[in-house]
């Protein structure tokens, strides 16, 4: 339960009060005739780490891409801190203006499988660009914050390096620092270790684990079962565009309710 310690408000009796940060309700997404998301409901509370697991093609990437507004949606609604996300009130399913979408996207950031660093910029510039250009943070302040983040991900000596001079694991840690630099309400990860050589996976998972322990709200699509079991508060199992199980991580692994999850776990662990 690493994530919920610092991020969750506590009531008078000391009990955790769940504050929803992200709410997805009946989300639908079509690609032509193919239904990629078939009515997804998902709530992510403040400080929670939610792992999304499921077979290839089950809609995991589509879900986080819809949340990050990289895809339009065909039905349902999403809310960030209670604000309807990406689509105007009244379920007209018309996209917000570009400016509206940009304003909302600033409150989330995504870490991709392929890092997606800007190759012609130094590590420091990769991390400071969005805070300076999008959020209007003064350059000196953004650089100081970025150096602090690079230290946290173990790369304080790489500020002036270019992405091609780094290993995949180092590049992904820069991408994580970049995602955190904008102080997002929700950090989204889409299989952040799947493109890495096996010996580089652990350094990235350790970085993510530290983020979770610091109280970040995170949605993590992953195949790393150990990571999900240790770090996630909740695990969501998807198949064919639906949520099949959504449970506290320990129950999810110890006592899966469906045959589908049982056989998935048997194959994956
Ligand atoms: P996962 O990440 O769980 O492997 P995806 O979300 O990538 O699954 O894909 C879900 C389904 O949607 C798959 O059948 C995939 O082929 C399809 N799909 C994903 N993106 C597109 C796209 N841009 N165009 C058409 N079909 C897509
Ligand atoms: Mg995927």
From TrEMBL:
Residues 22-265 form the ABC transporter domain. SMART domains: AAA. It comes from Citricoccus alkalitolerans. GO terms for molecular function: ATP binding. Gene3D superfamilies: P-loop containing nucleotide triphosphate hydrolases. The keyword Electron transport does not apply. Belongs to the ABC transporter superfamily. This is Amino acid ABC transporter ATP-binding protein. Keywords: Amino-acid transport, ATP-binding, Cell membrane, Membrane, Nucleotide-binding, Transport. It is found in: Cell membrane.
């Amino acid at each position: 339960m690493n994530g919920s310690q610092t991020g969750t408000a506590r009531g008078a009796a000391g009990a955790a009060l769940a504050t929803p940060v992200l709410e997805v309700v009946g989300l639908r997404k079509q690609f032509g005739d193919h239904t990629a998301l078939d009515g997804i409901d998902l709530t992510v509370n403040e400080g929670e780490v939610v792992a999304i697991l499921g077979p290839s093609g089950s809609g995991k990437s589509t879900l986080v891409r819809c949340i990050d507004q990289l895809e339009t949606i065909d039905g349902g609604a999403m809310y960030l801190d209670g604000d309807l996300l990406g689509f105007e009130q009244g379920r007209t399913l018309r996209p917000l203006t570009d400016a509206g979408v940009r304003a909302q996207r600033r409150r989330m950031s995504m870490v991709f499988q392929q890092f997606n660093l800007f190759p012609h910029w130094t590590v420091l510039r990769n991390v400071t660009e969005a805070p300076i250009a999008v959020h209007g943070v003064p350059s000196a302040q953004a650089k100081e914050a970025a150096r602090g983040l690079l230290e946290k991900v173990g790369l304080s000596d790489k500020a002036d390096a270019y992405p091609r001079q780094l290993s995949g694991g180092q590049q992904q840690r820069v991408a994580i620092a970049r995602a955190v630099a904008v102080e997002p309400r929700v950090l989204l990860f889409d299989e952040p270790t799947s493109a890495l050589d096996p010996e580089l996976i652990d350094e990235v998972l350790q970085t993510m684990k530290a983020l979770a322990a610091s109280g970040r709200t995170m949605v993590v699509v992953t195949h790393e079962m150990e990571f999900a079991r240790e770090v996630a508060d909740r695990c969501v199992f998807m198949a064919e565009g639906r949520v099949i199980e959504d449970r506290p991580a320990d129950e999810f692994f110890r006592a899966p309710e469906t045959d589908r999850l049982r056989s998935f776990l048997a194959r994956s662990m």
